[in-house]
Design brief:
The structure is a homodimer. Chain A is an alpha+beta fold and about 650 residues long. Chain A is built from 21 helices and 13 strands. In chain A, about 55% of the residues lie in helices and about 10% in strands. In chain A, the strands form 4 sheets. In chain A, strands 1, 2, 3, 5, 6 and 11 form a 6-stranded mixed beta sheet that branches. A 3-stranded antiparallel beta sheet of chain A has the order 4-10-9. In chain A, strands 7-8 form a two-stranded antiparallel sheet. The complex binds flavin-adenine dinucleotide (2 copies).
């Protein structure tokens, strides 16, 4: 990149110094750097070469070959079989790298070593998990996670597969009563898994006990033929992720031994007495979906890595690809000269840096929950909120990156477009994004309800505790703070919007409950718009809180990294404020302040552009995971190469 | 759809009567309804069955088979060979239907009967087009359009392929001087075309005359072997549109006869005298790209049809698919019950109805230009603006439709996701969307400059003439008009935003030109953000103008259709206002008015929901072009069907 080209703005103050890529890299990827490097090296091998133009069958068998190679290289050893935090950390570092190459590879591991194992680890007895985890890790068995049905996805509590206890034979009978109850979308079920954790409605002695989980063999391992009573069909071609064999399963009165119910928290005695350590079905159901929380944490994390991958490709190309000259005969300028291209790519780059550290915080919180064994409200709402917002951000960024590269962005070999297709499912699985934001909003509503009983003060450990303390008012008549886009201004704007929207949500909900004569279901439905807005505003304020901590932390490691991160926060904040009319409508900022913000974005993006090369080096994705246009698009397309 | 479910809002006033699908259909598709019906019927044949899971080679040969069948069915007869408006109309009606099935099919016709023929028709002599058009129509030859090069896409004026006149032999020598000058992306060049219109820099007797167009044979027809001096490579797999064989072409001093230069407006005499009826190279270049304008008009039109296709699938599914029950044991509600789902799908549905009629206006204007032979400023700026805004709208809508269907939206057979991948290129080809909006903004800047010389008044035939007349002020202190979201309020809000942004653009540009010591190139680069905003605001106001005319027109045909269309306009306007902070920041509306607008959207979307079935029936896409989830997702996925 030729710096001089990006630094010719009139209004511009000085650009920050470029951060040290090495320091940035250590901030972003602090642990297991050796394993990370080994994984990147492995991906140079021919079996991992990027390929396109394949049928579903070809993609599946290629993914299977890749899984075998990862296993053979020993990289999976001591990951999930450890059943502890250290193992999870190794596993995550490995998957983070594989995810950059191939979403299908990530998900084939994800349903097997992720969802299947995490479910058994969290909800099975010690005997159950010490039996299964090593067998899955070394590939003796392949597990899948069978929750969703044709009729029930977002509303998984409504699944209709049944499990009846038969005391005479001490077995459970798993059954699919009708077509809507067929398991649907089960990753690895169509061809590759031999065993599943199956979610089903348990009945013992004609009493219904709600959803419980059963280990059910699907295939006979010696020849992978289907077990008795199992029918499996293929979900067929998808928009992407075709290396994953998603399947549909019907159970025809399939019997499994009593020991196959996951029993750390609920169990059925041989003679048919049901017992559970949970006091409410709600609590039990929440615990049963714990593995999904892990999945959401992973999606939140990887969404940002993938956004950075797309941005690396697009920014490197934009620095080299030229279009239009300042005058006749002069050399054409690189795309990154254009303020529109800077905005298109630098706002997402800054945002990715703000979010990346939020995602890392969430992961740390989640690791703690592995040790303590329970997932707090905080992790629950953050994982739901980040999962939704980061995956939407990822798709939006990939789309921008694709368009920024013009026609080249549409070629498969340049990766951005096929990655987008592969990743689109992240907005849906492990919880549809819209439904996730509703969950965040429901937490807010509950906090509001609790506060109402407490003189309007939020509880100390509440996710909105910060709303108890209004930000300091600005010196009257002065817009300095917005002119400089300083921290107090940004925080106050985000805080006020959150505060107002949370209150609006509470007010509207109360009004609607009265209107609907107490029907919470109807009332909530008339709050969805403000609920989504409140959840988003809440998440933004929390991200900014986290960001400020990370700026401090980074500054200690490397002053320039701290400054760079601070710049990212300002770009993100400016864009956030300029993208939502509610800051103005709700009176959180004045029109003059909004003007200050909007008018700074170009300049901020220029500054970002000047350090973008260093930021991308800090991220450090190796060339073999990038694309021809990120390296040398002319040489790659030369006639001599035909 | 069960109406009762969508009509239970507190604040709600009465819903409009459902329009007559028949009347709506006649408004949307007034002409050649017989041909349209025949084309839909043809698509029932096996060769047109929707397929997924194919390699590039399979997709290409399937597309070729489909082309043959359309030709054989006689549907192409008397279209482009007529070289007149009547022929174009028939052609468009046919392609509009084929486009619903298969983007590749549309584009294979598009480069051949569209771009190739339109270029020869507009720029060739009568002899040239009477020779070529019938041969292309009946398939004796297949043409392609070779403009873009590896090094030059948006800046096509910079292409570097050369054409030198050799008076001794009365030939032109077409040459690719280096790899950046290879023709790139040429649709049909990789395998299927035997002839191209090639854009190249003409030199006659060492004098450079700028870009001219040459008919260049690529392949020998008897065996499709490459002609001497031609090298062709494949652009390879793409994110979609893989039925089109995009190719790269190098010319190695290829000779064509003097008669092969398109010569209606410029020619070279046998002895090498250059003459042209154009006074400036700018005017000539504009005329040369005329075929692209036709392409943009087509993209604008089809973007809306495709958005409606995605919406038809998602809305029909959402009316049937159920999730969550109001209370335990009660029946679950359809997705369309949720206000969030209504908003997700009804805002785009309303928008599509507003835009559909704008696109029809543009097409009519374009037909006129076929008769008059020249494309006015108005068609130029509208086609650029609509191309960009409608194709972005289409992708945004398909994404929403995909997400609205949850996991089912990710299955290929449900069409939305693969259509999205196929269509994404529409944001790039025939002019990258961002560059298109810049073209609109440049027209605005020019109008502003002309007005400055005219006491601040815009010219009578100017695209911003409406800005000469401010809308009437609201009665002071009253928000009634925003509460009712009436036409005066909407128009005033749109008008003010456009007026302010256009002025801001002019002001900023002036300031930047001074700052950059007169460099228009640098100055314009520092205006891109406000330029895009001004262009968007201008387009929105013009769309609304057009919409009001169409409401009147529709009301005459069918009162309920008029009412329905009026509702669509209000939903579109409310969403437009609520999506852009600049209405508030620039003082076009007050915070109280903004609140009125935002608070009405739910209610408006409920009303839309209640008439959505009738609206979709009016659009009338037949089931065989929809998807299993649009028909009966349970029966389709039954075990009995395995
Ligand atoms: C490729 C793929 C792989 C998968 N792998 C697995 C797997 O291995 N195991 C497994 O068990 N499952 C798996 N799933 C299923 C996945 O978890 C579900 O698709 C997801 O939970 C959404 O459910 P659904 O598809 O039924 O969508 P629906 O529940 O039908 O939702 C569709 C839309 O309606 C909206 N909606 C639903 N409820 C509400 C509401 N209350 N309020 C407002 N809007 C609402 C949603 O926002 C969504 O956009 C997979 C799915 C896919 C696509
Ligand atoms: C599938 C496909 C089929 C095609 N078919 C044909 C065909 O048959 N014949 C043919 O001749 N061509 C064809 N094209 C080429 C197409 O017209 C070009 O891709 C398009 O014009 C964009 O050019 P580009 O790809 O070089 O993008 P670039 O010019 O490199 O632009 C890339 C990005 O930079 C931005 N940018 C560029 N200039 C500026 C600026 N001045 N200010 C701000 N931003 C800027 C753009 O907005 C764009 O997003 C096809 C392309 C594709 C992908």
């Amino acid at each position: 990149m030729r710096r001089s080209l990006f630094l010719q703005s009139p209004a511009q103050s000085s650009s920050p110094a470029a951060p040290s890529p090495e320091a940035l890299s250590r901030l972003l990827y602090p642990a297991h750097r050796d394993l990370r490097a080994r994984a990147f090296e492995l991906l140079r091998e021919p079996v991992f070469r990027l390929r396109y133009n394949e049928t579903v069958a070809m993609e599946r068998s290629r993914t299977t070959a890749r899984i075998a190679r990862v296993r053979q290289a020993g990289l999976l050893r001591d990951t999930v079989s450890r059943a502890n935090e250290a193992g999870s950390r190794r596993y995550d570092v490995l998957i983070d790298v594989l995810a950059l190459l191939d979403h299908s590879l990530e998900i084939r591991f994800g349903v097997n070593l992720g969802l299947f194992c995490a479910t058994i680890r969290r909800l099975g007895s010690e005997e159950q998990y010490t039996h299964w985890l090593p067998r899955i890790e070394d590939g003796r068995d392949v597990g899948c996670f069978a929750l969703t049905e044709l009729g029930h996805g977002s509303n998984v509590r409504g699944i209709q597969t049944t499990a009846r206890y038969l005391p005479d034979v001490q077995q459970f009978e798993i059954h699919t009563p009708h077509d809507l109850a067929q398991k649907f979308w089960i990753g690895a079920a169509a061809e590759t898994a031999n065993v599943a954790v199956v979610f089903a409605q348990l009945t013992v002695d004609a009493v219904h006990h709600g959803i419980h989980i059963f280990i059910v063999p699907l295939r006979n391992k010696h020849d992978m033929s289907l077990c008795d009573g199992i029918t499996i069909a293929d979900c067929g071609p998808k928009a992407g992720l075709n290396g994953v064999d998603n399947g549909r399963i019907w159970f025809d009165r399939v019997r499994v031994p009593r020991e196959n119910m996951l029993s750390s928290m609920s169990s059925v005695s041989p003679d048919g007495r049901y017992s559970s350590s949970f006091t409410s079905p709600d609590a039990r159901f929440g615990a049963q979906l714990a593995a999904l929380t892990g999945g959401r944490v992973g999606i939140a994390f990887n969404a940002i890595e993938i956004a950075l991958l797309g941005l690396t490709i697009a920014i490197r190309y934009s620095a080299k690809r030229r279009a239009f000259a300042p005058k006749k005969g002069a050399e054409e300028v690189p795309l990154l000269f254009y303020t529109s291209q800077q905005r298109l790519l630098m706002v997402p780059l800054a945002t990715a840096f703000v979010y990346a550290f939020c995602a890392r915080d969430l992961r740390e919180m989640y690791y703690k929950s592995i040790t303590t064994g329970s997932i707090g409200k905080d992790v629950h709402s953050l994982s739901a909120g980040y999962k939704a917002m980061f995956s939407w951000f990822m798709q939006d960024t990939l789309q921008k990156a694709r368009e920024a590269c013009g026609g080249q962005g549409y070629r498969s070999e340049n990766r951005i477009a096929p990655i987008k297709a592969d990743r689109d499912v992240m907005l849906t699985f492990e919880g549809a994004n819209g439904v996730m934001l509703q969950q965040v909003a429901k937490v807010l509503l509950a906090e509001l309800g609790a506060a109402a009983k407490n003189g309007g003060t939020y509880a100390k450990d509440s996710v909105v505790e910060a709303l108890n303390t209004p930000p300091p008012p600005f010196p009257s008549g002065s817009c300095n703070s917005s002119k400089k886009l300083d921290q107090t201004f940004i925080y106050a704007a985000l805080w006020k919007r959150e505060d107002k929207l949370v209150k609006q949500l509470g007010e509207r909900y109360g009004r609607m409950v009265r209107h609907w004569n107490g029907s919470a279901f109807q009332a909530w439905n008339d709050c969805l718009s403000v609920a989504e807005a409140a959840a988003t505003a809440h998440m933004h304020r929390r991200m900014y809180d986290a960001h400020l901590v990370h700026v401090k932390h980074a500054s200690v490691a490397d002053a320039a990294s701290g400054e760079a991160l601070r710049l990212c926060g300002r770009v993100w904040a400016a864009n956030t404020i300029a993208s939502d009319e509610s800051f103005l409508r709700l009176g959180c900022i004045s029109a003059a302040q909004a003007t200050d913000v909007v008018e700074q974005i170009d300049d901020l993006c220029k500054k970002m552009t000047s350090i973008s090369e260093a930021l991308l080096k800090g991220v450090g994705f190796p060339d073999h995971l990038l694309a021809p246009i990120a390296v040398d698009f002319v040489a790659h397309n030369a006639r001599a190469k035909l």
